[in-house]
Design a protein that fits this description.
- This protein has 441 residues and is an alpha/beta fold.
- The protein folds into three domains: 118 residues, 3-Layer(aba) Sandwich (Rossmann fold), CATH 3.40.50; 169 residues, Dihydrodipicolinate Reductase, domain 2 (2-Layer Sandwich), CATH 3.30.360; 78 residues, Domain 3, Saccharopine reductase (Orthogonal Bundle), CATH 1.10.1870.10.
- The protein is built from 16 helices and 16 strands.
- The strands form three sheets. A seven-stranded parallel β-sheet has the order 3-2-1-4-5-6-15, with helices on both faces.
- The mean pLDDT is 95.
Amino acid sequence: MKKILVLGAGLVSRPGVNYLLERKNLSVTVASRTVSKAEKLVQGHGNGRAVAVDVENDAALAALIGEHDIIISLLPWIHHVKVANLCLEHGKDMVTTSYVSEGMKNLSRPVLDKGLLFLNEIGVDPGIDHMSAMKIIHAVEAEGGKVLHFHSYCGGLPAPENNDNPFGYKFSWSPRGVVLASRNSARFLENGKIVEIEGKNLFLNPKVEEIEGLGKFEVYPNRDSVPYKDTYGLKDALTVIRGTYRNLGWCATLKKIVDLGLVDETPRPELKGLTFRQLTAGLVGAPADQHLKEATAARLGIPAASEIIQRLDWLGLFSDEVTPDGGNYLDILSTRLQEKLFFKDGEKDMLVLRHRFIVENEDRSQDLITSTLIDFGIPFGDSSMARTVSLPMAIATRMIAEGTIAMKGVQTPVHPEIYEPVLRELETLNIKMVEKRLHLK
């Protein structure tokens, strides 16, 4: 019986842990700083156990890793390399849903030399996006065609019937992480030219895309898309863009929130005990009086009656409520967003992933291929985000345990050996990409 160790019992862990616990040929240990969270996950399963773990306690973490065969890290990404080094030391395979960091890349040779597999990016974005894209890219190549333009967009949003706040968004994971992403620069290939966008301009000029049956969404670029030309083997591609879906109005509002200075992490003890009105007045450089909305609008260069000011008002930035303890603007904003933009009991989230390819066929004709996943959370059950992140991870872990993945080294799921069986099994769990092909010329 293979022993699986899951490090972390956070928001996305439950569907994947349940999948593994249902395989009676696997023993599953869930380790969390808050052991009650781990106990809840393994409750009722004889092949599961919960333990407490402090990731900062190197000796305890090493001992726990040493007792198991495959280590899944659902910890914050900053801990992955530490876990990876312990897996290397103890000769254990490792699985994560996070992007491959430079530190992880640097382990490629020793991991290969030890005959181990460290499989990363096996969630949804990254994960299902890679696997479903590679399936089509390899199929086009097998037909003698080539991909000329590639767009890949993904977003986690409220289901339409639960999209009931002015921001058009609710948090299914850390608000701090979502807000911090608003400072990322972006880089992509478009019509043969590399385009670079500074973090401060990330939300300027978003594209608008319509998805059949759901309506229109904004799209802004996601990090650095250029390396995916090589990662995906898109040697003929003139365009390679990866982006994020949001509901209309999100980008303009986040741009102004960044412009106000609310995404600043600088420690500011003087903020303690301020009202939101006083905090906003300090950012704007205006009195904390009844004209603060107008002063904020003037500072941001927008009309006082604009939807952006209405959203900031709804968030409470002009109220006399006392701000939560945070120590800096970013933490105060993140806490406030969590208080206001949350999923109520029984509400559903929605995961939208779409690839768009323009391909040139062997006869020089061109086709548009789309591949779309629309998935909804289960009322009073697992969110779509949790399912689409943790189920690919769990399926791949089972395959490693059963020896059906033979690859070694630091890998991502861009290889048929991994993506074909994982995508097949995801379909049995009602997570399915729908492909369409339209002849262009």
